[in-house]
Amino acid sequence: MKILKLRRYLLLMAAWLCWGGSISGQEVVAVLSSELQPYQEAYEGFAAEMEQPVPIVSLSVAEPRIGDQTRVVVAFGSKAALESYPEKVVLIYCMAPGAMQEVEGQHEKTVHIDMLSRPQRLLTALGEIQPEMRKVGVLWVVERFGGYVEQLVEVGVELEVEVVGQRLETVEELPERLRSLNDLGVDALWLPPDPLLIDARSFALLKEFSRSNDVPLYAPTAGFVAEGAVASVAVSFSQIGREAAWLIEKVLAGEEVPKNVYPEECEISLNLESAAAAGLQISEELVQRADEVLP
């Protein structure tokens, strides 16, 4: 479903609801926080995997009317995740990193689809990009990323890669922490999608550190690769949507699903110029199979 078609569909759905229509008889309902492109891409991935059409409501167009027959609500974005839904409904939500704690306090059964790759998949992919990587530094500010870093540390033991994690109180500590990581001998640096850490100023500093010390910088999304990071191992919005569809099948079948789910697939983006500037030569084999390559 292309974006313009989705827009028309949302308007038709809104008109139908205004004239007294109801989605209350549907087992599954999708709710978008808005019509921003990331949510639309995620919904398109979701719709492509569903065997039957699923009613969709954008909160920028209409309010959802969830009835007694609805068993699962799929929420795209924080606003949709924080909507009021019937207690018995299973809420599958995604693309809402700042809403997790509040969402879990409001709903009895929730499933969160993470925007991060599975820890083992991330470290394995970084090892494919940089086979000589032995000590990777990780910096973050937002508290919730601490649990993910702990998992990276555990996986690193299995893969013989030391993960050195340092949480900052504020982004102002970044120069000091970079000096600390350099003193500890890190040979790679990975960043989670932390809005309190990454801004234009801090990203410029991170790139300079990477190039001055031959420490490849790995970013949370492909957008940062276009801005000068060496690479990203990231989950696409459409993949997040597909994951939601697969989870619905399990929920409706009565299967137990974890509260937090990492998508199984991820995409690798490479910036060859940035890699060379950080002293890294990426194999031709990886260049050929990467999802996106910038010269």
Features:
295 residues, alpha/beta, Rossmann fold, six-stranded parallel sheet
Summarize the structure.
The chain is α/β, with parallel strands linked by helices. The chain has helices at residues 3-18, 37-49, 78-81, 100-106, 119-129, 145-159, 174-183, 200-213, 222-226, 237-252, 272-277, 284-289, and strands at 28-32, 56-58, 72-76, 90-94, 110-113, 135-140, 162-167, 188-190, 217-219, 231-234, 260-261, 267-271, 292-294.
Q: What layout of secondary structure does this protein have?
A:
Blueprint: H1 3-18, E1 28-32, H2 37-49, E2 56-58, E3 72-76, H3 78-81, E4 90-94, H4 100-106, E5 110-113, H5 119-129, E6 135-140, H6 145-159, E7 162-167, H7 174-183, E8 188-190, H8 200-213, E9 217-219, H9 222-226, E10 231-234, H10 237-252, E11 260-261, E12 267-271, H11 272-277, H12 284-289, E13 292-294
Parallel strand pairs: 1-2, 1-3, 3-4, 4-5, 5-11, 6-7, 6-8, 8-9, 9-10, 12-13
Antiparallel strand pairs: 10-12
Description:
Residues 8-25 have low confidence and may be disordered. The protein starts with a helix and ends with a strand. It has 2 domains: 3-113, no CATH class; 119-234 and 266-294, Rossmann fold (3-Layer(aba) Sandwich), CATH 3.40.50.2300. The chain has helices at 3-18, 37-49, 78-81, 100-106, 119-129, 145-159, 174-183, 200-213, 222-226, 237-252, 272-277, 284-289, and strands at residues 28-32, 56-58, 72-76, 90-94, 110-113, 135-140, 162-167, 188-190, 217-219, 231-234, 260-261, 267-271, 292-294. The protein is built from 12 helices and 13 strands. It has 295 residues and is of the alpha/beta class. The strands form 2 sheets. It has a 7-stranded mixed sheet, with helices on both faces. Strands 2-1-3-4-5-11 form a 6-stranded parallel sheet, with helices on both faces.
